[in-house]
Amino acid sequence: MKHTAACSDFLQDQWAERCRLPRLDADLPQDAEWCEILEDGRWRRLRFHDYGDIYDRPGLYEHLFYGLLGCDSPRRVVDLLRMVRHDGGMPRAFSALDLGAGNGLVGEELREAGAESIVGIDILPEAKRAAQRDRPGLYRNYLVADLTRPADDVIEELSRARPEVLTCVAALGFGDIPPLAYFNAVRFVPVGGLLAFNIKEEFLDERYTHGFSELVRRMVRDKVVRLEAQVRYRHRQSVHGEALYYTAVVATKLAEIPRAMLVRP
To answer: With pLDDT > 90 as the criterion, what percentage of the chain qualifies?
Structure first.
């Protein structure tokens, strides 16, 4: 059931009078945006990147990002993935690894697109609790792990899963998921598998010579991946009402990423 179902709508409605967007300077960086929530009779500030605090409050994530700010990235990235798979004549059913899974919005879209087995992974235990609370049974397994230093049991689980698709939505480019973590995740996707992700459009500009932006360019240049499709779209609006544009990308993994290709975040 989609996150717009009656129960989720009810949880979001609980925040209608208890969550507000302040008037902020238009020059405020995207990764410094914040909102205020009313708890115990007092307004409390939460940064948008305080994901643990947001996930711990049922319905707040959806109300804030999808209700107030109109985020559309899970649908747009998975729709692009669906198109590539369809045009490539691939069977509808597939397995997926959802990196930076959060409370399961991308996993929900993947299930709608035909994913029969989904493993979620996030560095925050609050994300796992939220996914299990809001979307029980969606993930075959949900791992809480730091993929820059994956433990043996995480490596074993992901090796066994052998996901045909790796998704990473709204988690790249701001340091939430370092290049090393993404590199380690891609290792578990067999050659021929698909990588689906999105990133703020300017982060793919060649002026950005660090982090994930440079890693993507190197993978394409050295034919480690083949770009299958990409689209520019409105990710959401900012707190001061301006459209934030991202690029959704789907690529085929052609070879393993050489460790020498890694760059500093």
So the answer is: 67
In 168-233, alpha helices (H): 179-186, 211-221
Closest CA to 118 of 98, 100, 102: 98
Residue 80, exposed/middle/buried by CB under 10 A (0-12, 13-18, 19+)?
buried
pLDDT digit string (tens) for 138-155? Answer: 999 999 999 999 999 999
Q: Average of pLDDT values for 156-167?
A: 96
Strand order in the sheet with 225-237: 141-144, 115-122, 94-99, 165-168, 194-200, 243-253, 225-237
Q: Looking at the chain, how many residues does it have? A: 265
Tell how far CA 110 is from the center of its chain: 12
Q: What angle do CA 247, 251, 252 make, to 5 degrees?
A: 175
Query: Domain segments of the chain: what residues?
Result: 6-68, 73-261
Q: Look at the block and give the residue holding tokens 């069977």.
A: 91
Burial class (CB in 10 A: 0-12, 13-18, 19+), 117: middle
Please say if the pLDDT value at position 3 is more than 50.
no
Distance CA 25, CA 29 (A): 9
Dump the DSSP string for 84-131.
HHHHTT--S-EEEEEET-TTSHHHHHHHHTTEEEEEEEES-HHHHHHH
- How far apart are alpha carbons 183 and 118 in whole angstroms? 19
Fold of 73-261: Rossmann fold (3.40.50)
Cross-strand pairs, 119: 97, 141
